[in-house]
């Protein structure tokens, strides 16, 4: 009996360790923009107003853009499902606060009102999120806590959102930066998994965990995970509450190594020029490539800037390396480094 009790205690401790994230006791609004990359009005006033919303209310609300049109360059199956659950979601651009529809012209004042009301609302439930990337896999641990008694069929969505997606937009050009695009989901789909069905007591907690391999064209430094709690009533997912967290890389890991960046230098004995090849499985906001001498001094900058996923080639100019000897080529991003030795003749 004592052994069984000990095992139970250990199991509970492990569970607490795995799902130790704090659940915020606050009510938030979900602001949704329905758009398409081919849609001219989506790149007009609707674009400007959505920029204002992001600049003003990021951190105070969960914000996302859904592209349900299959001909949009940022289309996703989740965008279709999410939009289909909204009332009268025909055409674009459209705006929603939770499940209430607004026009481009009245979305901003109504957003201020909705957020002000949410601040004074006692939440029924909310979700704490821990989202990390390791070995090009996103893992999300989520804890749902009910602050008030619930009665019904409740679901949890875990949605992957990417900010600053570079893609064409009618009226904005071929390199428009799209704010908070709904990319994908965990937990099996847009509306996730059932939390519970029936009466749920105050302070009841539910733990969830899921993983997903990252798409090659996602910028992992700009990812968020939004957790939305729904109550399913007559086939419709009614909004309960939401929370969002930025995705982080696992502590102490080399981002370049864990994401599988490959560095090649040919030839490694440098007489005139040498070619650097870098294969990046994902996009990095900023990468610095430089040559250092054995004293640790930077003697040549090869490249500094954003690096998209794919194969990239650069060259080192021998004429800029004053003396022969041993040098080191270093690739750095967010404090993570990979390097290779060079011999200059």
Provide key terms for this protein.
disordered N terminus, 5 helices, 2 domains, Immunoglobulin-like, 5-stranded mixed beta sheet, 23 strands, 5-stranded antiparallel beta sheet, 345 residues
Please tell me the total number of domains. Answer: 2
CATH class of the largest domain: Mainly Beta
Biggest sheet layout: 5 strands, antiparallel
What is the averaged pLDDT score? Answer: 89
Molecular structure report:
This protein has helices at residues 2-18, 45-57, 77-84, 107-119, 255-258, and strands at residues 29-34, 61-66, 94-97, 100-102, 125-134, 137-146, 150-162, 165-169, 173-178, 181-185, 193-200, 205-213, 223-233, 236-246, 248-249, 262-266, 269-270, 273-280, 284-293, 298-307, 310-317, 325-333, 336-344. With 345 residues, the chain is of the alpha+beta class. The chain has 2 domains: 22-249, Immunoglobulin-like, CATH 2.60.40; 255-344, Sandwich (Immunoglobulin-like), CATH 2.60.40. Strands 7, 10, 11, 13 and 14 form a 5-stranded antiparallel sheet that branches. The radius of gyration is 24 Å and the shape is elongated. Residues 1-20 have low confidence and may be disordered.
């Amino acid at each position: 009996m004592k052994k069984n009790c000990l095992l139970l205690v250990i199991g509970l401790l492990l569970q607490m360790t795995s799902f130790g994230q704090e659940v915020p006791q606050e009510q938030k609004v979900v602001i949704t923009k329905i758009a398409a990359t081919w849609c001219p009005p989506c790149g007009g006033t609707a674009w400007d107003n959505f920029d204002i919303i992001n600049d003003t209310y990021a951190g105070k609300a969960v914000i996302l853009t859904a592209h349900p049109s299959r001909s949009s360059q940022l289309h996703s199956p989740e965008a279709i499902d999410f939009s289909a659950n909204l009332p009268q979601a025909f055409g674009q651009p459209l705006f929603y606060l939770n499940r209430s529809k607004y026009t481009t012209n009245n979305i901003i004042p109504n957003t201020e009102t909705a957020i002000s009301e949410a601040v004074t609302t006692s939440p029924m439930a909310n979700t704490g999120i821990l989202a990390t990337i390791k070995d090009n896999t996103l893992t999300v641990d989520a804890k749902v806590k009910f602050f008030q008694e619930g009665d019904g069929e409740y679901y949890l969505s875990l949605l992957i959102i990417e900010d600053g997606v570079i893609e064409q937009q009618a009226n904005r050009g071929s390199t428009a930066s799209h704010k908070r695009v709904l990319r994908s989901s965990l937990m099996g789909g847009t509306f996730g998994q059932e939390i519970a069905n029936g009466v749920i007591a105050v302070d009841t907690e539910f733990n969830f965990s899921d993983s997903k391999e990252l798409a090659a064209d996602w910028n992992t430094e700009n990812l968020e995970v939004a957790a939305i709690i729904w109550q399913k009533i007559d086939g419709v997912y009614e909004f309960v509450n939401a929370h969002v967290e930025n995705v982080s890389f696992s502590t102490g890991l080399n981002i370049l190594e864990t994401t599988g960046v490959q560095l090649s230098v040919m030839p490694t004995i440098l007489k005139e020029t040498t070619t650097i090849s870098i294969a990046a499985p994902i996009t990095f906001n900023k990468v610095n490539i430089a040559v250092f001498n054995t004293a640790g001094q930077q003697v040549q900058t090869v490249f500094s800037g954003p690096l998209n996923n794919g194969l990239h080639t650069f060259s080192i100019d021998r004429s800029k390396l004053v003396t022969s000897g041993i040098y080191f080529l270093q690739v750095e991003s967010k404090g993570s480094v990979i390097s290779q030795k060079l011999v200059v003749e």
